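Class, discuss our next protein.
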Amino acid sequence: MATNSEQILDHESGTASSRQVTLKCEPTTTPEYTVWWDEPENLDPANPLNWSPARKWANIITLSVISFLVPLVSAMMAPAVQEIMADLDTDSTLFATFSVSIFVLGFASGPLLLAPLSELYGRAIVYNVTNALFLLFTVLCGQATSPGSFLALRFLSGFVGVATITIGSGTIADLMPRDKRGKAVSAWAVGTILGPMIGPIVGGYVAEAAGWRWMFHVMTIVVGVVNLVAAFILRETYPQVLLERKAARLRKQTGNPNYRSRLATDETPRELFLCSIVRPSTMLLCCPIVTILCTYVAVLYGTLYLLFATYSFVFKQVYGFSTSAAGLVFIAGALGTLLGLFYMSQLSDSAVKKRVATGKPARPEDRLPLLITIPGALTFPAGLFVYGWTVEAQVHWIVPQIGTAITGFGSILIFIGIQTYLIDAFEEYAASAVGANAVLRGLAGALLPLSGLKLYDTLGWGWGNSLLGFLSLALAPVPVLFGMYGHRIRNLRGFQVKV
């Protein structure tokens, strides 16, 4: 094998530059030219890691806004469920909770297809296509005339809407070096948490003022505007796709078919697709690290959605709130989440930077320091206990609201900490790792709320929420242990899986 210097035309700048290419000079084969970033690698503007901060953050903030709107649409109808049931002529208690959670069932299904597609064809095309489909299904939800059609459209909305929530982590891995990902993940992930909390506030007021269908009409306009902006801002970031495009341009320019991306494989498109399509499931079922962490996240996420689906019933029945006032009860959880986001933004990258400053390589476990895992793992169940027993005792409504704020604070610490850990631990396949996470938490978010009203009818507000609190408390050691011993666990033979 030899390395020669030759003049190569850069098709983006239109200038010729001298660069090193690798030739595989085996006697029986045709020389092959390996395509990589232009030297010096850390200055090539085609590499997303070298984009300007403004360009990087424009992409990340756009994804955050979309990731905020999608779960907002998911939860905005919670305060108006009874009005929707009356309009669609159904008294099914299953519809009451499933109309909210079936959207999240779409969240659980979408990553199995969307994450692999993003690793085959790139991030941008998946974003743009799914954004357009999400707009379409949002329009149609507002036109539904039967319970069945409404539920079907809600599922499809969730299926396509989950794209930014699933693939956004992969885009951040493409754009940000490891020691700067914490703030980026926080900015992106906060939308996924705040959306379900702000949605009912908006939905409650719009539904009371103009009817539930206008909730979807208003969101159609908002989503349409955001999609238009996103189409101009979002650009491809996946290195495999960018380098393959560069190789294709060189093959066309030179007439030489032997230019090949360094990241290319010998597998056919069909083999690549089949491998990619099963990757999230493989990681979820066969990689114990992913399985354990995703199970913990799923329990917390399902508990949150159970709360979201039942808040309106709780505060209407116990405290006599109106539809619009029932939407306002989500503000406390949103404030707690924002406080947790601020806390995370100060700590998430600091552990990584401290380790790098000592000359040691950064580790995924640096994303789970004790200052994050212990407060997050303990405040989540603590908030459930406060919320459940103060509602049971019919204490002033502000006290259970404090409980929901505490739970919101703990949830964002755990969600962002584990999500960033998965990105760092499975960097090349970050979208699939987070897709596996989205699948399991989506299933929990869709199915656990179905038992919400029956749980409270059987055990009451106090013991019902305490049961959920004890379950999350039993799993609290998970992030702590991975933060302390994850580097050893990842090196155990049974914990290593080829993806």
Remarks:
- Confidence is low (pLDDT under 50) at residues 1-28.
- The chain has two domains: 2-45+238-266, 48-237+271-490.
- Residues 2-45+238-266 form one domain.
